[in-house]
Known about the structure:
The protein is 28% helix and 32% strand. The protein has 229 residues and is an alpha/beta fold. The two termini are 38 Å apart. 24% of the residues are buried.
Amino acid sequence: MRTIFLAYAYRESDHALAAQVERLLASHNVRAVSGKAVGGEAITDEVKARIEKSDGLVALLTRRDELAGGGWTTHPWVKDEIVHARAHDKPAIALLETDVQHGGAYGENEYIPLDRADLAEALLRLSETLGEWKRKAGRTIKVQILPDDLAAQLSGANGLVCRYRFVEGGTLHEWKTADLIPETGGAFLYLRGVQDDHLVQVEIERPQQNSWFSVATSQHLPINLRARQ
């Protein structure tokens, strides 16, 4: 997990809060991105693209207009950004300011109460949430493909299909795709979402020609491919 989209209203009253959340994200080695540079209040195509490229979303649902019957509205475009993130299966959490009405799509999802007079509890809970997201997201590892002669052959090939999956406690996970990267010292795959107890299995196919596969291998070892008969 490298980037989090920070959804908030670009108003002076929220700048300090957004800056504190950005510092918290940085403490988790996560970079905050936002739609501030594109301007405007509506959720634009550019903002949607930034959300889709991010690894998750944190939203600040702060007070906007006071309601006659009590409570406050919040910023509709920030709520739209939450909806867009969850529609694309991104982890998302809202910090909900006291007395803000938060119904609508995904209103039942978890949120963190936000009291501006006592920010510590909200920021601690957000930190715990980010830690859990990072644990679930796993790590990215770099594995070398062997034998060297096959790796050299595949490095210059077009149209390769490279897949990997994890094996956990005898259970096979779904296949994911990766690109074979020729580098100094060999050819490598970068595998995302690795947990400490995962074994790794790799399959590389040259469509309508040959394919190669590995047995389930420790994530700390090179991947030895063999031809599929």
